[in-house]
Amino acid sequence: MDMVFGIALLSAPVILAGTALLYVLLRRNGRKKGRPRVRDLTFCVFAAYVILVWFATLGLSLLLGQNARPSDWEWWFLLNLRPFDWLSPLWKLGWTAGWAEISTGLVFCQLGLNILMFVPFGVLLPVVFPRLRRLWRTGLTGLALTLAIETTQYFTGRSADIDDVLANFAGALIGYAIYRLLDQLLSQRVWWHQMNGRPVEPSAS
User: N or C: where does the chain have the smaller number of CB atoms within 10 Å of the terminal CB?
Assistant: First the structure.
């Protein structure tokens, strides 16, 4: 958890400065084209999210080098291509002894954080990019992104884990499901259509 707070603390100034500058540039262009303010804000939120993900997955270790590695994380440098390999003690040692060998708190924390990290991606991507509003397009884009992240992590001295890829992919799909639900619930809201860059229907309010 200390690392999560560290990422948030270090990335906050960059996110605020970057999104503020982006908003100014977008509004300058948006006023000329008659683009709604909420649409520009949506772009800024997505940009802030991308910067935060970059810090969490690549930026912090690239900026701090070896000092970014927690001393008690022995698995930091590794390549794991076997899905859910951390469950192997269960069938080797049995349920009771197997769970005793597994650092469940660390594993589930990692899985949970990796899923949660890509939920906003699944929600925001189809909002910002209309051409990616199909499930398979959002899913493939999320899969491509997480593969790129894991590959870059491995070649910059960090770990690459297929479980992270699967967790990120699951998070993107969950996020897309949330987007579809919101699209149904908010179909009559003007601001929702404006966020999505759609023409506002007369019945929307």
Answer: N
- By residue count, the chain amounts to 205
Q: Is 10 exposed, middle or buried (0-12, 13-18, 19+ CB in 10 A)?
A: middle
Which backbone phi and psi does 158 adopt, to 5 degrees? -115, -175
Query: What would the pLDDT profile of 172-199 be if each residue is shown by its tens digit?
Result: 999 999 999 999 999 999 999 999 999 8
Task: Give the closest residue to 43 by CA, choosing from 66, 25, 70, 60.
Answer: 25
Place of tokens 């149904």: 184
| CB-based contacts of 105, cutoff 8 Å, min separation 6 | none
- Is 168:147 a contact under the CB 8 Å cutoff? no
Tally of helices (H runs) and strands (E runs) in the chain: 9, 2
Taking the whole predicted model, whether its pTM rises above 0.90 is answered as: no
Placement of tokens 């992240």 in the chain: 149
